[in-house]
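Technical annex B. To support the medicinal chemistry partners, we prepared a structural model of the target in complex with pyridoxal-5'-phosphate, based solely on the information shown next.
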Amino acid sequence: MKFATKVLHAGIHPDPTTGAIMTPIYQTSTYVQEAPGKHKGYEYARTQNPTRDVLQENLAALENGNHALCFASGLAATDAVVKLLNSGDEVICSDDVYGGTYRIFTKVFERYGIKFKFIPLTDASDFAKHITPATKMVWLETPSNPMMSIIDIEEIASIAHQTDMLVCVDNTFASPYLQNPLDMGADIVIHSVTKYLGGHSDVVMGALVMNQEQIFEQLKFLQNACGAIPSPHDCFLVLRGVKTLHIRMDRHCVNAAKVVDFLLSHPKVDKVYYPGIPSHKNHLIAKKQMRGFGGMISFTLKGNNIDDAMKVLSGTKLFSLAESLGGVESLIGHPASMTHASIPKEEREQRGLLDSLIRLSVGIEDVGDLIGDLQQAIG
Ligand SMILES: *Cc1c(COP(=O)(O)O)cnc(C)c1O
């Protein structure tokens, strides 16, 4: 099956009892057994739920993986992955990661004796010299949030797999429509389903996709043992959202490319960060590993004045000022004070995350209207 068919059909079958074409919401906490241990494969809804099963099968197919597991949020999925490790293990993490990922690593798991090293990873050749015998995982996000850095997944995976390290890729920004890390050697793909997969800003959810049976069994154990599962109703909403993922992503890409052209020609705009721009540091890697450049853009203003940025942020009418991304409607955000406020200012600025940096999640509205809105807000 090709992608556009998978979003509609992979794992999805008419309901066996009624023929309902839509997967029912199995809103139940338990399942009746005929005799102790004699049941239809379902015992308790933390462990298994038919609506969740269908979504998991669908998401696995979209990432070309054998298995998927859904969690109550993207960070709950991250939490499960780190719990594969033991105290004393080390993780090498790309330095421009989602603020919440940075927070759970440094504020939660460091207390349990797991060490995290944040390095750029945008030069894969740099990676090997940070590996020690204790390094058990490399975690990377590409394109990254909010600097739109690109990391060569294939290169990092081939270096990592010279040891027994796990390669985890946060594929939230690209979505499985634009990039499939498992095909490039990743062991685990993580999604904040909240974003493009859900696509309608109405669900918080996370997912993990993998090929190897052993990793799947360990993560499935953690999903049940730690219990951060999504509700059946949310699984239904995501199954519904995913059906249009390919169409939405195509429009996100087209609209974002036009917004980038507008920003590049604007006299008040300083830098524009988008992997589709030929002068982007790793544009060629993006071209190699992505089928499109996505809907996320960051830019700074000349003079790097926070007040100028604040005027733009509160001046847009179509772009709503909000955290999150990947929904059909356009959002504007200020990473320094919103998504990345949990990262110390000094560390932020080392990564180019300046106070005037503005992040756009370009939606699927009419692009002329979107550009008009930015034009009036930037002035
Ligand atoms: C939002 C986000 C997360 C966290 O996901 P939640 O669903 O909010 O818990 C992780 N990674 C990236 C890239 C994100 O954008």
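Notes passed to the chemistry partners:
The longest strand covers residues 135-141.
The chain has two domains: 3-242, 245-378.
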